[in-house]
Design goal:
By secondary structure, the chain is an all-alpha fold. The protein contains 20 helices and no strands. Helix 11 (about 240-270) packs across helix 19 and helix 15 crosses helix 18 (about 395-425). The radius of gyration is 24 Å and the shape is globular.
């Protein structure tokens, strides 16, 4: 029975990893009564929580050290939510505090469970390699579908063919978004989030490390190399400004490392100290100008493709009417005001926040004055029944868990970053790859954290957990080797 349970557990785990691209599966949406945040991976998370997790806990199974920080963050969220029942929470239409607390805590628990399970299940070299292979399988399915849809739509005389929409509705509660790539996600920005949190970090890390989870390469080209190129093309086609900015930031981090190495190598060949300083300064300024020019060029290209970016260079709007009006011109003014509302809610309850799922109750009193001039804000307040969302993980955690919860969350990210960096110092290419994957994801999350605010989306938690799992396996392997050699 133990062997069968172990095999079944591993099948569930691989199915979870392969199903990551599906963010809004209709079946899951019906089960949890959610229209958009309904990841297919939730099915297999539930199966693992029923079949494997209780047995693992009963056998006193252990977790990596990083889990203590995640549990401290989780406990802070629970305490903040409990305290929220003693606050004078503003009312909003027919919404009740209890229903929103229950809904918020369910998503909160889902995120933590994704993290806990990911830190444990890939626990040796073979299982980690199979997990990376499953990432490739799921990513290839996601990219293949998007490329197929793009090709058929391009060759079709009219709109996207009906049969493609029928197939799309089998896997997601939403439909296509014109020329923008959406994959199996609820919207293009979510596809960009998926790519930036899991797939592009792994493929980029594998490419830089010259590693592949596949059995062989073809003409020295790995599957990860191909998926990285196609994945960046799909990311660009999402026209997600936050997604593109996040990946460029992550890519820039590795370019800076490369540039530092190149500058050192070149400057070392220069004789005198003065000449070396001049050469180093010149190279740094030249590379900086190159990157600024490249970023400006990409923004210019986007301004010709994406209607939302047409007036990106109209800086007179910024100087005359302020940043909110400029943001509204670029069609992200609403989100900027949502972030402000979350920040103001945090300022009112800075220590422990207003509780998980409750930030929306405070929106009407904390929205900035100019937010009422925005059509979307008025539509959500006057013509919908649901609470408004902060639309930013950073602002939401501050508003709902205060500085205490935010500190634990930030500490988890920092510790994961240190862990990932230590993995990059290994002689094992797989460990180096996962370490670089973690660093790339964390860099991307700096911007992606302003794009989504749902705890139930598994992508952040998955990569955080995978880094911890590889670090733990690496540490245990070294410990066993030390014990064999008679050392600590």
């Amino acid at each position: 029975m133990a062997k069968w349970l172990e095999r079944l557990t591993w099948i569930f785990w691989l199915a979870l990893v392969v199903s990551l691209p599906f963010t809004s599966l209709p079946l899951v949406a019906k089960l949890i009564h959610s229209s958009s945040v309904a990841p297919a991976a939730l099915i297999f998370l539930g199966l693992l929580c029923v079949t494997w997790l209780p047995v693992y806990l009963w056998k006193k199974g252990t977790f990596p050290t990083q889990v203590k920080i995640a549990l401290a963050f989780f406990l802070t969220g629970l305490i903040a939510t409990g305290i929220s029942f003693f606050l004078e929470t503003p009312s909003f239409k027919d919404e009740t505090l209890l229903s929103n607390v229950v809904s918020g805590l369910v998503t909160f628990c889902i995120g933590i469970l994704f993290y806990l399970i990911t830190t444990v299940l890939p626990h040796d070299n073979q299982k980690i390699r199979q997990t990376l292979q499953a990432i490739n399988w799921g990513g290839a399915i996601m990219l293949g579908w998007d490329v197929l849809v793009s090709a058929i739509t391009f060759l079709s005389p009219g709109d996207t063919p009906t049969y493609l929409r029928v197939v799309q509705h089998l896997f997601t509660t939403t439909t296509f978004f014109g020329i923008r790539s959406v994959g199996f996600a609820a919207e293009p920005s979510w596809l960009a989030h998926i790519l930036n949190m899991v797939y592009l970090p792994y493929w980029l890390g594998a490419t830089i490390s010259n590693y592949t989870a596949a059995r062989k390469k073809i003409w020295k080209i790995s599957l990860e190399n191909v998926l990285l190129v196609v994945g960046f093309g799909v990311l660009f086609k999402t026209l997600s400004r936050a997604g593109l900015g996040a990946f460029i930031l992550a890519l820039g981090f590795f370019f800076v490392q490369l540039n530092v190495w190149v500058v050192k190598k070149i400057s070392q060949k220069v004789g005198s100290k003065t000449a070396r300083g001049l050469v180093t300064t010149g190279l740094i300024l030249g590379l900086l100008a190159l990157y600024v020019g490249g970023a400006t060029g990409m923004v210019y290209v986007l301004s010709k493709i994406d209607p939302r970016m047409e007036q990106v260079f109209s800086l007179n709007i910024l100087t005359q009417s302020g940043f909110t009006k400029y943001a509204d011109t670029l069609q992200f003014g609403e989100r900027f005001t949502y972030w402000q509302a979350g920040w103001r809610t945090f300022n009112q309850h800075p220590l422990i926040g207003v509780g998980i799922g409750n930030a929306g109750f405070y929106f009407t009193q904390n929205l900035p004055d100019n937010a009422w001039n925005l059509a979307e804000v008025r539509q959500l307040i006057y013509h919908t029944s649901g609470l408004m969302n902060v639309k930013s993980m950073w602002s939401r955690i501050l508003a709902e868990t205060g500085i205490v919860g935010f500190s634990f969350f930030l500490l988890l990210l920092v510790v994961t970053g240190i862990t990932a960096f230590k993995l990059t110092q290994s002689a094992n290419r797989m460990k180096v790859t996962v370490g670089r994957m973690g660093i790339c994801m964390l860099m991307a999350f700096i911007i992606e954290g302003f794009s989504v605010d749902s705890f139930a989306l598994p992508y952040l938690w998955f990569t955080l957990g995978l880094v911890a799992a590889v670090w733990r396996w690496s540490s245990q392997t070294q410990t066993r080797q030390g014990e064999t050699n008679g050392s600590f």
